[in-house]
Amino acid sequence: MAERVLEVKDLEKSFGALKATNGASLDLRPGEIHALIGPNGAGKSTLINQISGALAPDAGSIRFLGTDITMLDTARRARMGLARTFQISSLAQEFSALRNVMLAVQARQGTSLRFFRPVMRDASLTEPAMRMLSRVGLAGRANVPAAALSHGERRQLEIAVALAMEPKAFLLDEPMAGMGPEGSKALTGFLHGLRQEAPILLVEHDMDAVFALADRVSVLVYGRIIATGSVSEIRNDPEVRRAYLGEPA
Amino acid sequence: MAARETTVNVLLVLLLPAVALTALFIGEAFYITLATRIAILALAAVGLNIALGLGGLVSFGHAAFFGLGGYVAGVLATHAFNMEPVALGLPGTTDMPVIWLAAILLCGLVALPIGLVSLRTSGVYFIMITLAFAQMIYYFAISWPAYGGEDGLSLSMRNGFPGLNTARPFPYFIVVFVLLLAGLFLFHRLQASRFGAALEAARQNPARLAATGISPFAIRLVAFVLSAMITGLAGALFADLNRFVSPSMLSWHMSGELIVLIILGGKSRLFGPLAGAALYVLFEYALGGLTERWQLFLGLVLLAVVFFARGGLIGLLAGRPRHG
Predict the structure, then answer these.
(1) Counting C-beta atoms within 10 Å of the first and last residue's C-beta, which end of chain A has fewer, N or C?
(2) What mean pLDDT, rounded, does chain B reach?
């Protein structure tokens, strides 16, 4: 059995009478892209939020790099190397693209309690941040405030921020959402190579992207994983076809 | 735009010494005192601006720190005058630098537990809980007869600064003005620093900040404590200006006044507090002479700022803020 970067076990989360996560278990192995798919309302974002630390599960455990992180807050998990992007872009809107990435660089360095040196004249922040922007193709937009970027550019910026954290695992929550065919294709190519740096748990609606990228796919329905397997196994799984792909078995 | 803001800032900085010097030459000490008052209120608001402007933390309890700083000056001077130790055999003092240090440290120490509790809340709850803490300290001061209770505490003379005759208005103005410049410099460097970046991100998007690995709570707590320290220093200066300290320095009116200064001048702008304090004191002086109800007009100006000039006076004069 291969070692696991991330291991989610029997997670449960209820909102009132609604069981949003109902005993979900999944894992992430080195070098893979593990796609999490499911119909709207299946609880994908709830699950991601529990893994990232934004929500506390009612029961179950989450292990990351061999450590139980179930009780740790978001910032601690991020410092351990868990980088997430948000389904709806979540950036410091007034800051430029560059400053958004610099924030992640400074978080990585653990140096936020420095009070005097101006960040914009600090090459140990600006240079790595600029490199990350170049990697996602945003170098030319470095000085534009996040609020003034286009939707697609904001998605790219989210990725650049995650890269700057030099993470041990990526949690990407619908990175293709609203991207358009051109953008999706470029991002698919980018993510293809990214798994070499750190494994990716990918929540995505774009099935072309999922089937092109995923080493494994898990299908979430009503808060539980009904199947996990390779792309072809999932495509041919009768239960998945019935529950998710909307075809009669 | 950036050049215009620099021009506005330079003019604002020169305004106070220009007024004070003119007053000195024509022999109108009152205007020196007016300029000193503006500088002290501006310094108090510079402190609050760290929490409110940069961090988005609307503290409605900063009078607690302003008043505590004032009481540090008053209590230490009283003990020095009576030659009684303050506590644990430590003597009182009339030495300003020592008083400042004591005010800064005490305010930091008090702000830490207040921040630890208050920062677990946000929005209206944060406003209310900071108000509640400040009111507790206010009522404590009123009910403690040793230092004048409701009547407050008079300083028999202004505390001293080595090498200066602080009893005279102009040297005291210089002392206060230099401290204001130091406060502004500190704010400027803070805003541009790594800490400032994290603090402003905590205001804009705390979830994002946490997701990059920086705890918004820790950043806000440090900001709250720093903010209280600077406001406390201003309080010590204020007590020395008036040679009097009373619970009114601790009251919620004072907290509100500090917030008003910032909104008038321009939230999270370096020179917002100074512009706001200048405008406020000018209003108080010009209209206060005409009518008791001058605050009605201040209220109208405040409404106008909130509706038509969100950036305050600085925003009006210098345009939108720049961000790297």
Answers:
(1) N
(2) 92
- Nearest beta carbon to residue B204 from set A92, A107, A119: A92
Residue B167 lies in a domain: yes
**B18 in a structural domain:** yes
Q: Is the dihedral of CA A165, A170, A173, A179 positive or negative?
A: positive
Q: What is the ipTM of this complex?
A: 0.91
Which chain B residues are within 8 Å of A145, Cβ to Cβ?
323
Instruction: State residue B219's pLDDT score.
Output: 97
Work out how many domains chain B is built from and give that number. Answer: 1
With contact defined as beta carbons under 8 Å apart, do A202 and A191 qualify? yes
SS3 label, residue B245:
strand
Q: Do A94 and B200 touch (CB under 8 A)?
A: yes
Q: Least CA distance to A125: which residue of chain B?
A: B194
Which of 182-211 (A) contact B at CB < 8 A? Answer: none
Domain-embedded: residue B324: no
Tell me if chain A has a CB within 8 Å of the CB of B322: no
Domain boundaries, chain A: 6-81+167-243, 92-153
pLDDT for position A20: 92
Inside any domain, residue B323? no
In angstroms, the CA A236 to CA A233 distance is 5
Q: Spell out the per-residue pLDDT of chain A, length 249, in tens.
A: 458 999 999 999 999 989 999 999 999 999 999 999 988 888 998 999 999 999 999 999 999 999 999 999 999 999 999 999 998 889 999 999 999 999 999 999 988 999 989 999 999 999 999 999 999 999 999 999 999 999 999 999 999 999 999 999 999 999 988 888 888 888 999 999 999 999 999 999 888 889 999 999 999 988 999 999 999 999 888 888 877 666 554
Contacts of B266 (CB under 8 A, 6+ apart): B272, B275, B276, B311, B312, B313, B314, B315
In the numeric block, which tokens belong to residue B306?
A: 């909130």
CB pairs under 8 A between A and B: 115
Collapsing DSSP to helix, strand or coil, B244 comes out as strand
CATH classification of the domain holding B32: 1.10.3470
> Which residue is closest to A147 within chain B, CA to CA?
B204
Residue to substitute from B54, B190, B194, interface A, most A β-carbons within 10 A = B194
Contact list in B for residue A102 (CB cut-off 8 A) is 197
Which structural domain range is residue B77 located in?
Answer: 2-318
pLDDT band at B323 (very low <50, low <70, confident <90, very high): low
The tens digit of pLDDT for each residue in B46-92 reads 999 999 999 999 999 999 999 999 999 999 999 888 888 888 778 88
Strand order in the sheet with A82-85: A82-85, A169-173, A200-203, A33-37, A216-221, A224-229
Task: Extract long-range pairs of B203-206: CB within 8 Å, 24+ residues apart.
Answer: B203/B54, B203/B55, B203/B56, B204/A92, B204/A93, B204/A94, B204/A95, B204/B56, B205/A90, B205/A91, B205/A92, B205/A93
**Level-2 CATH architecture, domain A6-81+167-243:** 3-Layer(aba) Sandwich (3.40)
**How far A148 CA lies from chain B's nearest CA (Å)?**
13
